[in-house]
Known about the structure:
The chain is of the alpha+beta class. Among the domains are: 17-133 and 577-598, ATPase, nucleotide binding domain (Nucleotidyltransferase, domain 5, 2-Layer Sandwich); 140-313 and 389-414, no CATH class; 491-543, SH3 type barrels. The protein has 25 helices and ten strands. The strands form two sheets. The protein has a five-stranded mixed sheet with strand order 3-2-1-4-5, sandwiched between helices. α5 crosses α9 (224-232) and α19 packs across α20. 31% of the residues are buried. The model has no long low-confidence stretch (mean pLDDT 81).
Amino acid sequence: MFTFVSFCETDVPSIREHENETIKGELGEKPTVAVITDATGGKDEFTVVCGRWVYDPPDSEDIWIVQRILEVLLTQGHHDAMSAAGSLFKVLINFGISPDNVLGHMRDTVAMNTKMDTILRRIGSFDSLISMLCLGHLSSNAGGELFKGGRLAVLVLFWRVLQNVLRSSQARELWASRTGKLPQSYSEIKWWCKFECVEDFRVKFSDLLPWAMEVMESGLAPESAPRLVNLLTSPGLVHYLQIDMATYCFISAPMHHVAYGLEGDGELVFRTYSLLEEVIVPFEFGIPSMTEVRSLAADAVAWALTEEGVTDLALSASECDAARTAATLGPPMIPLPPRPQRNLTGMAAATRARIVAADLMTRAVQQAALDRAKELAEEAHVKALVAAPPHTVNGWDIYAQAQIAPAIDYYFRRLRDEDEYGPQMLIFEAASIFLPRTLAVLDLTVARIRLGKIRTVTALNNDTTFEALSHELPRLKLAAEEWLRLNEFYANDTVVDVRRDSRLQKRTKGKIIEFNPTARIYVIEFKLDNAVVQERIDVSLVDMPSFSVLSYLKQRRLRFPAFFAASKILALYQPTSAAAERVFSLLEQFFGKKGSRGNALSDLIDGTLKLNYHKRRA
């Protein structure tokens, strides 16, 4: 007879032990690894520990990266850096991984994790350990900076009203019937989802007002639809909205491309720096001219000179100054009242429960009042903006730059910080020369400078290794130039990744049909909205990320032994903690969302007992 006891005491440990033994067999003896960790947060916290190593069979031309879940830990109650370090240390020892063979630890930027790495170096021989911070979190945090302090205020107002309208499934269907596609789905967790949504509505801006009118006339979203119509029928608001949208998409597009490009489990370390250059190069020395913003600004200035514009913007000098001051200050910060401090020790359980429930109800009412107060403050801020807009194209340009400058400053400040992302940026820069497509076009002097930064990797920071790499570099560059000459363009029927336009949208897989070498244009076939289409795509927008640096160098290991050995170390370092975060997606899929997964075990016990007691089958 099947019982929960037999399942828990026999089957589960057996399955787990078998999987662990399989992983130990894959690791082999004295494995060199990097670990990737992440945690869900909260009272009952799940921590995922993934291991990553290179499998290089000696009698084969094959070589690949292996990535496995080593442990999923459930921590109940208080969780600090010391206990986290102890748990990770125990996991490594259980799998026969020596601390001095752990070369990297990819993690998020929570302060506790920084302390954890410090403790690990103290309690074990983690002499080669390099802390790697998740670049995905950096992009997410920089994206969040765009909406702080009253920046992009009209876009924020539009977004809130729009999301309220889109709660109606019928409103979503009306949008699909008008545009041929449902609105982009939005996730609070992934900041770039907001960019995809905003970009979609920006491209289809002419459809917004007719759709909003149709929603309002159909009686859908009765509170929000009229507000959306009002926003889209006010020329002053519309000009601000379009400029906010264009500004937001201008900075978010390259960050969005980087975020998607850094997803995955492959040899990302070799292409990370090239991806980051798409943000670094345009914005390193200031904000470049935003062509679309200036075009929209010219329309706004022209409207302000019309009779309608003059009437709408007819303010006295003092009113204008007051509006500009209010717009500059932004909406006020409204804090939530502090939680009440209560001593519930010694109280009866029922009394305690009533007090806690009353506190929660009070908190919910306070939060609702706070949200409404914030909405009113944001709306007052928007009115102040619209009442005194810039009068010139340059004025609008200055406004647009002011909206995104703090996010750019935040991104670069943390990227260069020696206590945060600075060291790993040196690793990514050094790793970039291992990619033949990159090395072939670099000046040899620049390549030598990048190679010098490989000393950031503790395992490669010795004179013997560096001298061998320096000796091989000129010949490796010649080999890369020859490789590029033979592989500059991909053959027909090759499946490649296509960035649909220069705004660096999400990649789409397509197949090369033909190539025009004079125009440097591919004809590529791919699926779009369930239809097969062909488009002419510039070569700069076509990538084949499946290229393996490890395989490339293994085939040439006799000519470049130092670079081959170094590539196996560098390939361990990942730019994001996406590997661990995907485990959380599985956790949610099998055990429900964060708020309910804590009950998964009790639900299993309850259901098993009922089935057996009632003599029924599931």
